[in-house]
Design a protein that fits this description.
Layout lengths: L1 H15 L34 H4 L42 H7 L4 H20 L3 H16 L4 H18 L7 H11 L5 H18 L7 H12 L4 H20 L5 H11 L5 H16 L13 H6 L6 H42 L9 H25 L2 H9 L5 H4 L1
Helix pairs in contact: 3-4, 4-6, 5-6, 5-7, 6-8, 7-8, 8-10, 9-10, 9-11, 12-14, 14-15
C-alpha cells in the first residue's frame, strides 16, 4: 500500500510541472551534449563573429532539436507575468513554458534552443495556414521579450525573431510590419550585445524578404548610420554585414524609390563622423552605378556635403570624396558631349533641309540674314568646342552648388 501511495504521489508531482528541467522525461540537453560549446562552457560571441556563426538553422548539425514534446498550453502558465510593467494577460500565451524558459535563459545555447523550437512552431502554424497564431507569437515575443527590461530576454527575443523569419521563408514579407519596427528600436539599446543581435535579426529578415524589405529602407538606412558611428567593434561588424546585404538588395531591385531616399541622404550628408562619411560615400557610389537610377539628377541636393568632406581629417575620406567627385565630373562631361553632338546633328539636319528647299525668297535681305545666322551658329559651336577642350564642365559643376552653399565659407 505504501509503494502504491508513493507511486501515486510521484505521478502527481510529474503532472504538476511537465516542463520542469529536472524531469527525466523532459530534461533539456546539457551543454556537454551541444557541439556549440567548447570544453563544457557556453559559447560566447567574439568581436570578430559573423552572422554565419550565429544564424539559426534547423538543418545545422551543431544542434539537433526534435519536435517539441508538447506545445499545448498548461494551466500553470495561465497567469505568467513576463513584464512587471504590464498587467497579467488573461489569455494563454502562444508559447509553451519550456520555450519561454529557454528564451529567457542566461546562456546562448539555451536561447538558441528555444529559438529553434519557435521556428518549428512557426512552421507548424504555417502548414495549417494559421496566420492568427503566427501573429500572436510575434506580438507576444515583442511585448514580453524585445521590450522587456531583462537583457537576456531581449537577446532571446531577437534570436527568436531571426528564427521566425527562417520559419516563415518566402512568406516573411507578410509580417514585415510586425517584425521590422521592434528590431529597429533595439538599434538604440544601451547594451552592445543587444545592438549586435538586432543586426543579426534584421539581417535574417532582410535576407529572406529581399526586395520587400525596401519599404523600410529609409528607417534601416538611418539605423545603419547610427551603428556605423558605434564605438563597439562588435556592433560595427554587424552593421557592415547588414549594410552589404542592403546594397545587394538595392542593386538587384527594380522598385527602389530614389526620390523617397534623397531627403534622408541630404539630411545625413552633413555629419562629421568619419565612419558615417565613409558609409555615405560608399552608398553614393553604389547608387550611381545602378543603371536604372539617375543619381546625377539629384546632385545639387547633396553635392555640397561631398565638397565638405574634402577637408576631412581622414586621408581615406578625402580620397573617397575626390573619387566620387571625379566620377560625377566624368558623367557630366559625357553628358555635355552628348548634348553637343545632338546640337551638331540638329544643325546639320537644318542645313540639309535648307539646301533641298526649292522655294525662292522674294526678300532681298534674306540672304544676308541667313549668312548672319550661319556665322552665329559657327561661332557658338566653336565656343562649345573650346569649352569642352578646356574642361569648363568643372566650372558648371561648381555653379550647380553655389546656390546651396555659403559663399563666405567655401567659394
Amino acid at each position: 500500500e505504501e509503494e502504491r501511495m508513493s507511486e501515486r504521489e510521484g505521478s502527481v508531482g510529474g503532472e504538476k510541472d511537465p516542463y520542469h528541467p529536472l524531469s527525466p522525461k523532459h530534461k533539456l540537453p546539457s551543454s556537454d551534449d551541444n557541439t556549440n560549446t567548447e570544453g563544457g562552457s557556453s559559447k560566447h560571441v567574439s568581436r570578430d563573429a559573423s552572422f554565419a556563426d550565429l544564424n539559426i538553422n534547423s538543418n545545422s548539425n551543431s544542434s539537433t532539436v526534435t519536435k517539441p514534446t508538447t506545445v499545448t498550453r498548461d494551466s500553470s502558465v495561465d497567469t505568467f507575468n513576463f513584464d512587471a510593467r504590464k498587467k497579467p494577460q488573461s489569455t494563454l500565451p502562444p508559447l509553451s513554458t519550456n520555450i519561454i524558459k529557454n528564451l529567457s535563459d542566461k546562456t546562448y545555447d539555451k536561447r538558441r534552443l528555444g529559438a529553434m523550437e519557435v521556428e518549428i512552431l512557426i512552421k507548424e502554424s504555417q502548414a495549417v495556414n494559421d496566420t492568427e497564431q503566427i501573429s500572436q507569437i510575434i506580438v507576444y515575443i515583442t511585448q514580453n521579450f524585445l521590450f522587456s527590461s531583462a537583457v537576456n530576454r531581449r537577446k532571446g527575443g531577437l534570436i527568436a525573431f531571426a528564427a521566425i523569419a527562417i520559419g516563415l521563408g518566402s512568406e516573411t514579407h507578410k509580417y514585415i510590419n510586425l517584425l521590422v519596427p521592434p528590431v529597429l528600436k533595439c538599434f538604440k539599446n544601451v547594451d552592445d550585445r543587444i545592438r549586435f543581435y538586432a543586426c543579426e535579426a534584421l539581417y535574417n529578415v532582410s535576407h529572406i524578404a529581399r526586395g520587400k524589405i525596401l519599404v523600410y529602407f529609409n528607417e534601416i538606412f538611418d539605423g545603419l548610420c547610427r551603428l556605423y558611428a558605434d564605438k563597439e567593434p562588435l556592433v560595427q561588424n554587424g552593421a557592415h554585414q547588414l549594410d552589404g546585404l542592403m546594397k545587394g538588395i538595392v542593386t538587384e531591385s527594380e522598385s527602389f524609390d530614389i526620390e523617397r531616399f534623397i531627403p534622408s541622404l541630404k539630411e545625413r550628408i552633413k555629419v562629421t563622423n568619419p565612419f558615417v562619411r565613409g558609409f555615405l560615400l560608399n552608398w553614393i557610389r553604389v547608387l550611381n552605378s545602378v543603371p536604372d537610377i539617375d543619381l546625377i539628377d539629384y546632385l545639387p541636393q547633396f553635392l555640397d556635403g561631398i565638397f565638405r568632406m574634402l577637408s576631412d581629417h581622414s586621408a581615406d575620406i578625402r580620397r573617397d570624396a575626390t573619387n566620387v567627385l571625379a566620377e560625377f565630373l566624368a558623367e557630366i562631361q559625357n553628358l555635355c558631349k552628348k548634348i553637343h553632338l545632338e546640337k551638331q546633328d540638329k544643325k546639320n539636319n537644318n542645313n540639309s533641309n535648307s539646301s533641298d528647299s526649292t522655294t525662292i525668297s522674294l526678300n532681298p535681305n534674306s540672304n544676308n540674314n541667313n549668312n548672319n545666322n550661319d556665322a552665329n551658329n559657327n561661332s557658338n559651336s566653336e565656343a562649345e568646342e573650346e569649352e569642352g577642350n578646356s574642361g569648363i564642365e568643372f566650372g558648371k559643376m561648381i555653379k550647380i552648388i553655389i546656390p546651396f552653399c555659403s559663399v563666405n565659407d567655401r567659394l
